[in-house]
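Re: [ENG-882] Designed sequences occasionally contain unexpected residues at chain ends

Forwarding the minimal case from QA. Structure tokens:
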């Protein structure tokens, strides 16, 4: 739109949108559906709005991208406020909204304020690549006149810290709700597979078992062997001061079978397979392949997510079992060289130190950790937007969240088994 008519068209519908939307059958792609989507699905912190400024002579092109909604737009607001002071340096300004995925009233207010500042400085303002909902909001604000100036108040240190803590709590709460919702979708999909096993894509399931599980065996074996050896060496060094160096075997056995073996394996899988799930699904989302699957009537939950989740649930207990063996092997090597303990005696000591539940405590936790890793990785892939930067951000976030949830699950089971006396 040109500066002369960007706020000239009358608007009756926008002011009624929020009132009438609940009573209408509105799709998510319709203009009014955008209002509904914003109310139902608050944006994640990863979908923050972005803007790039490109100067072409006396013309300034402002390209907007991402989710321009109230919870994610503060950074762009600061950028545009800083730009207002330089608005007199351009004679023509173009706002390109072609890459904006979500847009609400706060975004319209910010853009209108910047447009008014540019017009007052003598520049012509144009808006390009607007959808209908964006155009309606901007037209309505254009009729109402420029936004009232906001007095800026200096924020004290304590208020700033409290605000940041509040933002963090809100972000964590939204993330928790999102993970719980996704967990419900996965459980429903698993129920459908139990009723009709043919729904499961068996070839991708076996493929991901190999990729996520068996291909990780060399790395898991090497790291757990080394950790077992280091744990035995440090334990023997300290226990020998009390004449109890033979109890090194008991320490390595119990610690590895109950905690360390599985925990190390889960962290390795989270960094290796969880990030791979995010990158694979995120790349498909960025190239709109997932939208194409839905258009063809294929459910991404059945095609992409469920095979990965079930494959990891099956393979992580196997990897944990191998990790336990390799950790005990590393402890046995150190015991042989440092303590002079024969392999036969070492095996007898392991049998005396461990019973069935010592081993079972670690294996029982494995499927739950695997489910957390796979779901977090797949969900992060679905949150990817249209940029390569978003793939990297979501991959990083998925690994951090997966490791965090693995530790939370481990702590919950540790308290539970202690409470029941196992």
């Amino acid at each position: 739109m040109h500066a002369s008519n960007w706020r000239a068209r009358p608007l009756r519908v926008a002011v009624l949108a929020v009132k009438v939307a609940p009573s209408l059958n509105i799709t998510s792609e319709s203009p009014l559906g955008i209002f509904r989507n914003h109310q139902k699905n608050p944006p994640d912190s990863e979908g923050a709005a972005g803007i790039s400024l490109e100067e072409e002579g006396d013309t300034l092109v402002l390209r907007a991208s991402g989710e321009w909604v109230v919870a994610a737009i503060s950074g762009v607001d600061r950028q545009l406020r800083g730009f207002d002071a330089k608005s007199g340096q351009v004679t023509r300004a173009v706002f390109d909204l072609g890459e904006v995925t979500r847009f609400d009233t706060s975004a319209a207010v910010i853009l209108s304020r910047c447009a008014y500042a540019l017009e007052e400085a003598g520049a012509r303002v144009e808006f390009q690549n607007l959808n209908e909902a964006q155009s309606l909001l901007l037209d309505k604000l254009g009729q109402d006149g420029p936004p009232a100036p906001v007095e800026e108040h200096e924020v004290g240190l304590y208020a700033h810290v409290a605000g940041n803590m509040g933002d963090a709590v809100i972000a964590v709460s939204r993330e928790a709700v999102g993970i719980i919702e996704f967990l419900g979708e996965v459980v429903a999909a698993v129920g459908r597979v139990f009723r009709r096993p043919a729904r499961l894509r068996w070839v991708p399931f076996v493929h991901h078992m190999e990729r996520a599980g068996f291909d990780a065996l060399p790395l898991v074996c090497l790291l757990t062997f080394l950790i077992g050896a280091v744990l035995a060496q440090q334990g023997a060094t300290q226990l020998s001061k009390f004449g109890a160096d033979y109890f090194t075997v008991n320490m390595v056995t119990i610690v590895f079978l109950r905690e360390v073996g599985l925990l190390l394996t889960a962290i390795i899988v989270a960094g290796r397979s969880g990030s791979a799930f995010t990158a694979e699904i995120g790349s498909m989302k960025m190239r709109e392949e997932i939208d194409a699957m839905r258009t063809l009537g294929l459910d991404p939950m059945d095609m992409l997510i469920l095979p990965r989740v079930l494959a990891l649930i099956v393979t992580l207990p196997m990897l944990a079992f191998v990790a336990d063996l390799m950790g005990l092997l590393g402890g046995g090597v150190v015991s042989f060289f440092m303590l002079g303990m024969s392999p036969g005696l070492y095996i007898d000591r392991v049998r005396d130190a461990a019973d069935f539940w010592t081993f079972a405590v670690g294996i029982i936790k494995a499927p739950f950790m695997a489910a957390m890793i796979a779901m977090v990785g797949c969900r992060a892939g679905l949150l990817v937007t249209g940029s390569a930067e978003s793939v990297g951000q979501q991959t990083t976030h998925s690994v951090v969240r997966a490791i965090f949830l693995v530790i939370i699950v481990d702590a919950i089971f540790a308290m539970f088994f202690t409470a029941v006396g196992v």
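QA comment: On inspection the terminal residues look reasonable. The chain has a mean pLDDT of 81. Proposing we downgrade this to a documentation issue.
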